[in-house]
């Protein structure tokens, strides 16, 4: 500990470096700008190196500052997690951020079972396709779609991303869709999405779909509404629409599944893996997906390479 510079100076540097602005750092720390500047100067004097390049009324990190900041920011985040574990982490609210389609289908249909199993925990679910900033929110866990490997976060693999054409039964009949190539001549939602070319190739159609005008929606939730209303056919994730497929409200004409890359992950801060509410949600999620395992080819349950 004797080798460490004063904590106040380290804190001032971390805030100023992260924000690249001494005035905003002062506001964040409840100090004056002069005090932040003084602490940073003290740290620079101790290290014998400049941490910032000061030019024309603004500052930016020097090469030394760029090397130092990530480790210091991670250390402060870990300390924050440790203190939070003593109190807030055992609070009775689990806050979940989920990708829009996953949250509005699979998770919304099942989350009540989690709350009934753990009645002492309340659940707050928000849905967005944007990656949540764990440092700037009270989110405990997130369901993300992507490659995994986010710095400072633990990502538990759930299943590989996959899509296949899905439509209403009346649309299938009206357009006499019997072979994958028939989809080249019908209304496709997001017709210029490269995933269509990927799925068609996977299904053995050598013809690349020509560009065309059409309807493009933000999520499968909106696409499902359009499809059930009788408009078009959409690339959707059948695992998330089992109730609609089993009831016959929507149909999956072909078994071919296309993997566009990426996967669904349960994500949370590395230092919070042993927080009770996160442990319980992780265990419950694994149980639910284990029950769904027969619904997909085994390859889709295998982690990404």
Automatic annotation (TrEMBL):
<dbReference type="GO" id="GO:0006351">
    <property type="term" value="P:DNA-templated transcription"/>
</dbReference>
<protein>
    <submittedName>
        <fullName>LysR family transcriptional regulator, glycine cleavage system transcriptional activator</fullName>
    </submittedName>
</protein>
<dbReference type="InterPro" id="IPR036388">
    <property type="entry name" value="WH-like_DNA-bd_sf"/>
</dbReference>
<dbReference type="GO" id="GO:0003700">
    <property type="term" value="F:DNA-binding transcription factor activity"/>
</dbReference>
<keyword id="KW-0238">DNA-binding</keyword>
<dbReference type="Pfam" id="PF00126">
    <property type="entry name" value="HTH_1"/>
</dbReference>
<keyword id="KW-0805">Transcription regulation</keyword>
<feature type="domain" description="HTH lysR-type">
    <location>
        <begin position="5"/>
        <end position="62"/>
    </location>
</feature>
<dbReference type="InterPro" id="IPR058163">
    <property type="entry name" value="LysR-type_TF_proteobact-type"/>
</dbReference>
<dbReference type="InterPro" id="IPR000847">
    <property type="entry name" value="LysR_HTH_N"/>
</dbReference>
<dbReference type="Pfam" id="PF03466">
    <property type="entry name" value="LysR_substrate"/>
</dbReference>
<keyword id="KW-0804">Transcription</keyword>
<dbReference type="InterPro" id="IPR005119">
    <property type="entry name" value="LysR_subst-bd"/>
</dbReference>
<dbReference type="InterPro" id="IPR036390">
    <property type="entry name" value="WH_DNA-bd_sf"/>
</dbReference>
<comment type="similarity">
    <text>Belongs to the LysR transcriptional regulatory family.</text>
</comment>
<dbReference type="GO" id="GO:0043565">
    <property type="term" value="F:sequence-specific DNA binding"/>
</dbReference>
